[in-house]
Amino acid sequence: MRAVVLVGGFGTRLRPLTNDLPKQMLPVVRVPMIERVVDVLGSYGVTEAVLSLGYRPDAFIGAYPDGVCAGVLLHYAVEPEPLDTAGAVRFAALSAGIDDTFIVVNGDVLTDLNVAELWDFHKSHGAEGTIALTPVEDPSRYGVVPIDDEGRVIEFVEKPAPGTAPTNWINAGTYVLEPSVLDRIASDRKVSIERETFPAMVADESLFALHSDAYWIDAGTPDTYLRAQLDLIDGVRANEVAVLPSDEIDSSAIVENSVLGADVVIGNGTIVRNSILMDGVTIGPGVRIHDSIIASGARVGPDSHISNLTVVGADVEVPAQSELTGARLPESD
User: What's the topology of domain 2-223?
Assistant: First the structure.
């Protein structure tokens, strides 16, 4: 069983964390996001993951030089130029010589979806393609997918206007596809699988979908990237270790519902809540950090207040007594 993992995006919504690093190489409770995605695929029998690469492919190749991630063989498919979602799938699949049923996943989605169940549903319905669906409160940001009683997709509505969606079940970013889908994708231009390939398959009645209530989160924004990690330490999804023995936390400091990387230093009287501090972060005394992300090597000066999804980039120096609310440091151009 083989899978194409889409990891070619620039991760603009997560800047400055992605200024020099693809978002799938960012840590999720100290494990690279890509490793968590591939590990789940491997648990369902995927033996080779084809990484569809675009932005900073060297980061992936350097991290896994032996071509193995979470026990799964890797194949690197580096796009010569951005090809959009369908183009990326086609390029990666042909690069790896895929000629049988295969899986496609978005590399910034963290989920407990039962991939084997999706595969079996696909096979039993004789589908050309099958999409996993997940329910959301606001479907306007996603591809909305109404289905009939047999699971056949009726239409594919990409990012409908608020209040107009026919259902709250959306495209969860995991597909099972037949190689014939590759023939539908033009080779000489960008092609969107959501806006072009899937609607064409709907017209041919060859696209199916399966509802799933499994844990699912698109970790591509500061809010969801933060929440995905807190879900792994507070029991929502798991109870992983939040603080490491190498972290130096003053006895008067308070750290609550937060994830610390290695060698984090937190000064006296500081309070950290619902936040992420990556490797080597140093926090001075009297600091307040709430609902924010501090990247590796950053230093926060004394008596600073950081809140409301502020994102501090790697190695940034935050001056003493700074007041940051919803800020991005450094600011994007």
Answer: Spore Coat Polysaccharide Biosynthesis Protein SpsA; Chain A (3.90.550)
Dig out the tokens for 44 from the structure: 């369902």
* pLDDT for the residue 55: 86
* Partner residues linked to 153 by β-bridges: 147
The backbone region for 330, taken as left when phi is positive above 0, alpha when psi lies in -120 to 50, beta otherwise, is beta
Burial call 73-106: b when 16+ CB within 10 Å, e when fewer: bbbbbbbeeebbbbbbbbbbbbbbebeebbbbbb
Euclidean distance between CA atoms 272 and 290, whole angstroms? 6
Q: Where in the chain is the domain with CATH 2.160.10.10?
A: 241-329
Give residues with Cβ within 8 angstroms of 41, minimum separation 6.
3, 5, 49, 72, 103, 105, 115
Give the span between the Cα atoms of 193 and 195, in whole angstroms.
6
Quick one: 1 exposed, middle or buried, by C-beta within 10 A (0-12, 13-18, 19+)? Answer: middle
Whole-number pLDDT of residue 229: 97
Digit-coded pLDDT (tens) for 135-147: 998 888 888 899 9
**Alpha-carbon separation of residue 321 from 36, 71, 252, 304, 306 (angstroms):** 37, 46, 19, 4, 10
CB-CB contact of 317 with 304 (8 Å): no
Does this model's pTM top 0.90? My answer is: yes
CA distance 285 to 290: 15
Q: Please give the structure tokens belonging to residue 274.
A: 């619902």
CATH 3.90.550.10 residue spans of the chain: 2-223
What DSSP letter does each residue of 196-220 carry, written as one string?
IIHHHHHHTT-EEEEE--S-EEE--
Q: Which CATH superfamily is domain 241-329 in?
A: Hexapeptide repeat proteins (2.160.10.10)
- Residue position matching structure tokens 């309070």: 271
